[in-house]
Structure formats: structure tokens, C-alpha cells
Amino acid sequence: MKKFNFRKVLDGLTASSPGGSSGSGSGGGSGAGGGSMHPGATAGAAGTPRDEIQETLTSDYFQICKTVRHGFPYLPTALAFDPVQKILAIGTRTGAIRILGRPGVDCYCQQESGAAVLQLQFLINEGALVSASADDTLHLWNLRQKRPAILHSLKFNRERITYCHLPFQSKWLYVGTERGNTHIVNIESFILSGYVIMWNKAIELSTKTHPGPVVHLSDSPRDEGKLLIGYENGTVVLWDLRSKRADLRAYYDEAIHSVAWHHEGKQFMCSHSDGSLTLWNLKSPNRPFQTTIPHGKIQRDGKKPESCKPILKVEYKTCKNSEPFVIFSGGLSYDKACRRPSLTIMHGKAITVLEMDHPIVDFLTLCETPYPNEFQEPYAVVVLLEKDLIVVDLTQSNFPIFENPYPIDIHESPVTCTEYFADCPPDLIPVLYSVGAKHKKQGYSNKEWPVSGGAWNLGAQTYPEIIITGHADGSVKFWDASAITLQMLYKLKTSKVFEKQKLGEGKTTAEIVEEDPFAVQMMYWCPESRIFCVAGVSAYVVVYKFSKHEVNTEIASLEVRLQYEVEDIITPEPEIIPPFPDASSQLPSLKNLSGSTNTVACEGMMKDSIPCLSVKTRPVRMPPGYQADLVIQLVWVDGEPPQQITSLAVNSAYGLVAFGNCNGLAVVDLMQKTVLLSMGTLDLYGSSDPYQRQPRSPRKSKQFAADNFCMRGLSNFYPDLTKRIRTSYQSLTELSDSPVSLELERCKSPTSDHVNGHCTSPTSQSCSSGKRLSSADVTKANRRGPGRPPFRKAQSAACMEISLPVTTEENRENSFSRSRSSSVSSIDRDSKEAITALYFVESFARKNDSAVSPCLWVGTGLGMVLILSLNLPASDELRQTEPVMVSPSGTVLTLKGAVLTFTCLDCMGTLTHPPYEVWRDPNSADDGEKTRKRKLVMHSPSSSQDMGDHQFAVICSEKQAKVFSLPSQTCLYVHNITETSFLLRADVVTLCNSVCLACFCANGHIMTLSLPSLRPLLDINYLPVTDMRIARTFCFTNEGQALYLSSPTEIQRLTYSQEMCDNLQDMLGDLFTPVETPEAQNRGFLKGLFGGSGQAFDREELFGEATAGKASRSLAQHIPGSGGIEGVRGAAGGVIGDLTRARIALDERGQKLGELDERTASMMASAEAFSKHAHEVMLKYKDKKWYQF
């Protein structure tokens, strides 16, 4: 347990209690510039609640541990399959290996070096895997534990590894190198044998040129003592391992990419760089007896068919009752440049070309037998693409694909935001699945998914979990994440509420983002009332309600003007300027209450009162599931585009939705479909504004209008990256070279960049600097002078940069490496203030309140917290007709840095859930009258008793956390979380029937604080924020769970709960399960006598140290691995760890003993059968003469 010095933790406060327990109110106000707090709060007052509330959480409850990684392996490079265990391994360019079995069996392991995986080889049915890396290291992984670990490593020092081959049931691994040499490694000891096949011995002495790197190694199916070596330049050598000489050499004038044997060992096939396949016979190696260019055009004059693209890999698989299969990737004609990557299947005279959506990385044919010298009987092909994994069924003539049970389509459209809900209502998952199952695709193979290895059980964790991902194309996916698995439940397409963008209208539309205008930027979900809200990048909010019934209806829409305007006063005397705007500046806001006048500006004139997108006006068919109830769009104002939404909150009990941006706040009544409030942030303060703000001059105001074109994204600063960025998932990684503006961080979009207060597109791509700008915009932009970024100066303490790699010198100049300004100095420069957090709750709005009332808490980028009072009609009937009054309460609380989150605790320290309406189907047929009684739950079930006379308000900003007592508004506890960095995410979560504050910091630290006393419970440097994706997708949830997007295609889940770390071993799937190796077919007497080599091949005798000697020490270095220790890292230290290690050791020992017992019994049975057979043969031939045979 880590010990904390509370005096150091509360450093910077002006007073602390004698025990070092909490800061007083005067300290709490020190960094925030006043406000409505009571500075007279004493340490004694701070101590009072501590006596009442017994906090149960201690540091022993917390431990950080990665649990599971979901999604498609990012940048895959290699593929392997164990035909007996039926598990699949995928290696990646980042040194990661993913091992997949039956659904639920999904394991991720990472090489420490991070070098790309070149090749993977299973030790078939042995529970081990060999990986070859780009840093010329071989690793042996132990798969007999739930978390695989490296048992041995072998680092080649003088030669580069190009190809590996491990024969079935052999312990000697052949390793080919770039120099053309072949080395042999003992798998058990991971030591190099002294036996080496040098390239100059393998080729003919008369050959003057080097044959190139080894591109293929395989032993003959007919004779294990013969090794086929393929060299890049077209040379193939069949090497006799016993006599240490070449049996045959074959030469071809095109480079070789791969080689495949016929199962009888008399023929082999090569694929070449000119798109040709050559078939060779061992009896006549002088030239191939068959050469074909499958996709080459046949010339009329009888010449050789024209060459095609290289065939990168070929597999030659035989069938007992039909023609052999020849399967290859590549080889297409050069004249079909636009043709997609393809896999070709040749079966007899039939040629089938399967076009793929992405380039093929590798493929493997799955066969019924692991023995290379038997009829292979292929039944499926696993194809690994750059961004997908598909399995083709070979047993059906139309070659359908299998339905993939893994969640590998997370990245189907780039993920822009995530939300995670643990311990949600149990009926949600079946309900979402039932509406999602109706959209399943048809045409899949009817056979079982062939990768069915491993074992998985549900484990002890039983609560339901749901992950929601928002995407760049406007889609939202709901996933069942219970028990560390992931399965898609339901997909919602938010773009369907809008008209499709027509090509050619680019100049006349009011779009503010060029690509992905429907990208999801923020999501808000209330699981209890099933209300779902989405904020899109084009400055709109869509509110969805859930229904089990299809409906055909029009979509209600509202337009909101949300543009803060400061009076244009030019005066040299700033002292006489009033401290807050007068009533005239609020007039534009008051006009908006009646709704907007949809006046579309004529072309060439200033855009005003037009939204960015067009909502469908005709009735729309909405299938069961989430159905759009209301679309709210921000509109252009006087030529200025609407700013993107930075905060969002919905409450079903109040029937309200609130959202804000860097201009101000809007509150909309969902039931009456009216705008209740549309106000600039400054106007919310009224007379309570703690800052003396100066209005801007007219010139500065106009300058800002011109600056808004930067909403198109960082494209203006990265023109050189245009080609490189635009792929469907690189957009998530390439735009990480800019600073983070964290007052807008709640957008949580992994691909958006909010730089210095301006929102940019979540999937903005590079484009030429002047694209889609009017001439006026360009003129205004040029006014800035050369080299100046089109962003205004940093507007708050929330504009700190994350130091990230910059791609070019030009980009480095534009990386905005300016220091973070203090809150007060920022305000002098700019009077704008973003709304960063919103929270509906029953709370005390003012100091003298005696009872809780509906409130909206508003947090800003300057650390201000405003409380708005909501006056709701008393009855259901009046609620439909009477207006809801929203008014500032005058209460202002202050913190350092942009506000991230709020929560309320009751007087017992229990979490107070905001009220909600119990879900009912809005389209239910048995509902006679429309005005049914709404069923509201006003307080959380855990605190059904009276809430008491006070409550605790927990507020966390990017710099500090504070706990206030309401209604007195006394600051009871303060914790300065970070001085040098800033928080990216903070959530109040429940754990072990208690509550705590979980924080993720930009410096990579994960912290938890107790509530309400803000005692540090956990602080671990977990993860450096290397790119914006992590910053925008990290989220905490209840029961000690969290997640983030670790790559553009993968979700990494982790736990900060000690209990879950302890139980993780039981929850993970087993990769290895004891399976009997299938017996080899009886080859028959004559085949055994004449078909193969006369003598048995003993590799041990040939490659062992006694015969071959030791290899040079400088050639390769053996590195012992951590072995089985990795498997128990998830368990706690001390006694629990020792017990876990002992249990695993006993399991493995018992397994080995069981295998030994089985083998002994099998040998005894075999010996008995042989003895009986021999006796029968002896009796049969005993009395016969030699001529009677």
C-alpha cells in the first residue's frame, strides 16, 4: 500500500487542519478568484462530516491491471494456425500477438522490443508458439497458461532472419537468413545446432551470383531427411540432410515468392514475381513440367502469356475424391489497375476469384490432417487482410464466407468517442439484441466457425456491461461487454435523420466540415429511461427514444442561434467599462426564445440562420430500436458558423436536454419541443460575474469571424499529409500532432482536435490550404500575416499542449508550442468561455434553500460552476402545456482549470442519482390515451429515506477536486490533483458498494480519491498519452472498470479493482486444452517399403551436439524468458501469488503426468498389437517353402 503525506498533497492551500486532513474554505478559493464560497469555513467544520460518514474504501481495494483487448489486431503481418488445437495466431507490426479460439478465447501478448512479427509457427498440439521478429529474434511462447509468456529467446547477431519452418512433431526449427544460410535451432533448449547449410554449398560451384535470401524452407513429405530450400532469385535446392549435399537443383529466371509440396513428395509448385506458377517434378528438375500464368492474357501469335503482378503465396492441397486445390494471392493482370486485392481458388478447371475489400497480408488453408504426407482434404481458407479477417468455406461450390463471431469490425468506421456502462439494468442487453438481431446479414456458410479451440467459462463476474462506440460515419454501436467478452448488440445510424449530401452543391451548402459531416462527437445515455442523445460534429444534437415497434413519422426539429456577441465599444478607458454586459447584449438571446426564422441567405451574401445539415422533412420509417424524437441544430449567425458542441446532458424526468459550446448554453424542452434558453456564457452570470471583462473592438470581432474557418480542421496546416492520411483508420493516428484544448476535452473524440478554443472536425483530413474558402475568408485569413496560425490566443487554463511527435519541420512550426496561460490573463485577451460540463440533479440551488429542487449545474472552461434553477409545472397535465422556467440562481463556485464532472452525495455519503422517468414504449399499441401517467424515480433506490438537510457536491476540474456542503456552499475538502499536468477524464464511480472519484491524467497517471474526503487511494503511472486517441476515448465506469482505444482498431479494457485483478485468472479463457493428436493413416506395406526412405530419420543424431558440434557463440545469443511468471502477474503478491503459482505448477505437472500415462498406455497397446500380428504372420508362413510364397 502506497503511503501519502497529506501535507504534501494539499500543498498550496493557505490552511490545513492539524491532522493534515483537509483544506479549509479559504484555501479552496485561492486559485479560482473568489466566487460565492464562504471563506470563513474552518477546519472544525470540515471535520464534522468525517465523523458522520464512515468511508469504507482503502488503498487495498485498488490495483491496476489490463484485462482484455478487443477488436482487429492493428497492422497485422503474420498468421498461423494449430490444426489440432484449432487456435489462430496473428502477429502485428507493433510486436503484438493475438491468439484467438472459440468466442471468448482471445488473448493479447506483446514483445517488449516492439519489433514487427515476421512469422509465427505453432508447435502443433504442444501448447507453444514460435515467433520470429524484425529485430532477428526468435521467441518461444508458452500457451499452457492463460497469459502466454516467453520461455526462451534467441537473438541472431550477424544474420537477418527471413523464413522459419518447424516440421510436425519435430523439435528442430529450420531458420533461413538473408545471407542464404540455413540454421537449425533446438526448440527445447533454444540453442543453435552446429549443423549449418551454407548458401555456397547448396548452389552449384559454377554459379557466380549469390542466390539471395532464403524465402522458403520445408521438408519433403516423402522423406523427412530432405529439406527443400527456396532462394529469392529463382533457385530451389533439395538438400539431403544426412549426406550434407544437394540432391537436386532447379533454376527459374523469375524470383520465387513461395513454394508448396504435393502431399506425395514427388512434385512441388512455385509462385513467381511475373504472376506465374511452375510445377516441378523431382525426377526432371532441369525445367518445370508445367508453367501457367493464371490471370495472363493468352497472346494470339502463340507467344508466352503476358506477365502479371507477383503471386505472393501459393498453397497446393490435395483431395482424395476430387481435383487438388491451388489457392494463391496476387497474380492479377497489370491492366486492371483498379481491381481490388484478390484470392484465387483453382479447383480442377474452375477458377474462382474472390475480391477483397483490403490488401491481403497472408492466408492459410485449413486441412483435415496435420500430417503433410496424407491427402490434405482442405475445408476452409483463413484470409488475413490489412483491416479484416475472413474465413472462406471450401466445401461449398460457391465458396461462402463464415460469419465471424469476433468483434473485429469495431473500426468499420473510425471510432470517434466511447462510453462504458457497468452494472446497468439487466433487461437492456436482451432488448438491444432482439432489435439488433433483425438486421443480420444473410448468405453466410451454415457450418460452425472453424477456429474453435480453447475453453472459456463465464467466471464469477455476473453484472451486465455495455460499451457504446460513436463513429465517423454517424453510426453508433452498442456492445455487450459482460464477463470480459465483446459482442455487438445493436447498430444505430444517426445520419438517417438528415438528407444525403448531393455532389456539386459544395459551394452553396452551409457545411462546416468537409468530410464525415455526421461524425459522432459526444454521446449521453440514460440506461434506466433508455433515452439516448448524440452530438454531431456539424453542431447538432439528436435525441432518441427506444421503442419495440416500427413507426412511420416525421422528425421534429428545432434550430437554435447560439452566438455570443459583445457590444462593439471603442474606448481608451477600460476602467469605466461595466463588469458585465448590459441588457442590450442579451437581446439576441431573447429573440431566440420564439424559435429561429429560417431565412436562407442568397448565394454570395452572408450566411445567417441556416443550419449545417438538412433534416428530412418527409415521414421516415423507423424500425424497432432507437427512433429519432428531436433534432436540434445550431445555425450560422451573421456569416459565422456554429461552434461545435462541447458538453451535453439529458434528463428524462425533467424532459430537458442541455448542451453548450464555446459561445454559450442552450436548454431545450423535449416534451413541448421548444427552446427554453439560448444564452451566451457571460449572460448566465448576470451580476455574479467574478471577472472584469473587456469587450472586444469591432475589428477584433470581425477578425474572429474570419478565424472560424478553422472548423474545417487541421487540414490547413498539414497539406503535405493529404495522401498519407486519408485511409479509413489512419485518420485516428495522423492527426495527433497538435495540442489539446481541454476545456473542450469532454468531446472525447479520438480524431478531433480542439485547438485553443476552436472546435475542429473529429475526422478532419488534410487538404489544400485554400480549399472551400470564400474570397473574403481568404483575404481575412491573409491579414494575419505569414506563418501565423488562424487560431486566437489561448483562451483558458485549459489550452495546454501534449508534447506529441510532429511529422515535418513545417508542422513543427505550426504545432502551437506555447505555454499554458493562466486563467486570469486569458480572460483579459478573450471574453469567450466554453461550457465544459452539464449535470441535471435535485440539489440546493441557493444558500438559504431548505429543500432540494431541480437544478442544472453548469461548468465552464475557466473553472466556474453556475447553478441554474429549473421551475417545472407540478402535474403531468400541466407539464405538456405550461412553460418550464430556467433561471440563474446567482450561485457561482470556482475551481482551478476547466470543469470536468459533477456529482452529488446525500448526507450519508451515498451517491445521489439524478431523477429519471421509468421507460415506457412511446409507440405501444395498448396505450389508449396519450397522456398516460409518467412514472418518475426522483431519488436513487439506495437512499430511499429522506435526503436529509444537506448534501455534498463533488466537483472535479482538470486541476483539482473540491467537495462543497450544500446549501451552505462551504468548501469542505480540496485536493490539488496535479500542478504540472491536467486531467483528461474524471468520473465518480461505485466500487464495493461505496463511491470514489477516478481520474486519468495527461501524464499517464490513473488516480482514485475517496469521497467525500478526497483521500488519495491509488496513484499509478499507467500509460503515457502518446496520441489524442487515448486522451479522447478513455473512460471509467462502475465496479473498477475502464477502457480506451489502444489503436485505431482495438479497445483495451483494464481494471483498477484489486478484487477483479485477483479473479482475472478465472475469467480468462484457456488457450490450450488436452486434445489427442490424430493418428497417421496406415500407409500400407508396399508404400512403406518403396514409397519413402529406407531408413528412419533421426534428427537428434544428426543435429545434436555430439554429431554437429556447437554453433559459434557470436552467431546468436540465448536469452532466458520470464516463463510462467507472467501467468501469475495478475494475482496479488504475497500468499495469494504463491498459491496461484503453486496451483499452476500442479496443474501443469498433473497434465504432463496424464499425458505420459496416456502415451505409455498407447505404446503398450501398440506393442501388444504388433506382437499379435507378428505371431499370426509367423504361423501363416511357418510350414511353407520359399517357392510357395
TrEMBL record:
Name of the protein in question: Syntaxin-binding protein 5-like
Localization terms from the record: Cell membrane; Cytoplasm
Positions with biased composition (Gly residues): 20-37
Domain of life (superkingdom): Eukaryota
GO BP annotations listed: exocytosis; Golgi to plasma membrane transport; protein transport
InterPro entries: Lethal2_giant (IPR000664), Lgl_C_dom (IPR013905), LLGL2 (IPR013577), V_SNARE_CC (IPR042855), WD40/YVTN_repeat-like_dom_sf (IPR015943), WD40_repeat_CS (IPR019775), WD40_repeat_dom_sf (IPR036322), WD40_rpt (IPR001680)
Annotated region described as Disordered, given as residue ranges: 15-49, 746-795
Family: Belongs to the WD repeat L(2)GL family.
Cellular component aspect of the GO annotation: plasma membrane; SNARE complex
Record CDD domains: R-SNARE_STXBP5 (cd15893)
V-SNARE coiled-coil homology domain: residues covered: 1124-1184
Polar residues compositional bias, start-end: 749-772
Assigned keywords, A-Z: Cell membrane, Coiled coil, Cytoplasm, Exocytosis, Membrane, Phosphoprotein, Protein transport, Repeat, Transport, WD repeat
Residues in WD repeats: 110-151, 249-290
GO molecular-function terms, A-Z: GTPase activator activity; myosin II binding; syntaxin binding
Membrane topology designation: Peripheral membrane protein
Keyword NAD: no
Species name: Dromaius novaehollandiae (Emu)
